[in-house]
Specification:
Strand content: under 5%
Helix content: over 70%
Number of helices: 10
Largest sheet: none
Distance between the termini: 47 Å
Order of helices and strands: HHHHHHHHHH
Shape: elongated
């Protein structure tokens, strides 16, 4: 008897992943080059205009101090935007029905979208770090921790993008979270300044910002400096990633705003 070929359990997720990666690579100027230029401008304007006026921050030059925060900013924005825009456009155009009738499991759908979101975020993040390295040097004291931080943050916010896309009924709602929550928390999370520059009252407020811990974990990985124990930052990253992935998977299983 000739046995049937075994079914590859990852085939569905890999197929969706390739489709999503091809989607954002079709418009590299918008999905890769544009955020890279924006981040490079932040680095040039803040790193060189303010960097010339500031002495060392936390034992390193101000330009080098900026790099981890700008890399984190790239990871958060690109992972979120990739999944939220893709799924919401599918809902808007009605093509999400084609996805639902395929033999993909909900876990495969989640894996395909999140994997592509992580790929875009990591691509832009690496290019951001590489661009900064041209100006401040390519020092990378903890490369494996940097990769782990990038992956966890990208997975967390890619899943968050899916959740928002499932919830949203119009483009204004898709933009609500990044405009009024993610961007303010990121900019107020220590991207451009050290906690030591703040008064005790504002330091206390800073420690209530979860993104501050993510930035400090990346700062430890990229420049070896942090005001937060690395285990705290990485633990929070893992917790948030698991929580967001779990919520996104449950909403997909329920068909939340997909079948109505």
């Amino acid at each position: 008897m000739v046995s049937a070929d075994p079914v590859d359990p990852t085939l569905g997720a890999r197929t969706l992943y390739r489709k999503e990666v091809k989607r954002f690579l079709r418009v590299p100027g918008q999905t890769v080059l544009s955020p890279l230029i924006t981040t490079a401008l932040y680095f040039l304007v803040f790193g060189y205009s303010l960097g010339g006026r500031l002495r060392e921050v936390d034992g390193v030059s101000y330009s080098r101090f900026l790099v981890p925060g700008l890399v984190m900013l790239s990871l958060i924005n690109n992972s979120f935007l990739n999944t939220s825009s893709s799924l919401f456009i599918m809902k808007l155009q009605g093509t999400v029905v084609d996805l639902l009738v395929t033999p993909l499991s909900y876990l495969e759908i989640l894996g395909g979208f999140v994997g592509a979101g992580c790929t875009r975020a990591l691509l832009v993040g690496v290019l951001t770090w590489g661009t900064a390295a041209l100006f401040v040097g390519p020092a990378l004291p903890h490369p494996f921790l940097a990769l782990a931080a990038a992956f966890l943050v990208s997975a967390c916010f890619a899943a968050c993008g899916l959740i928002v896309a499932l919830w949203a009924d119009k483009f204004e709602q898709v933009n609500f979270l990044p405009t009024f929550v993610i961007t303010p928390l990121t900019f107020l999370g220590g991207v451009f300044y050290s906690a030591t520059m703040l008064s005790p009252r504002f330091q206390a407020l800073l420690h209530l910002n979860p993104i501050y811990y993510l930035i400090e974990a990346m700062r430890f990985a990229l420049i070896g400096r942090s005001h937060v124990p690395p285990a705290t930052g990485f633990g929070l990253m893992a917790l948030l990633a698991v929580a967001m992935l779990g919520v996104a998977l449950e909403l997909l299983r329920r068909g939340y705003k997909l079948r109505t």
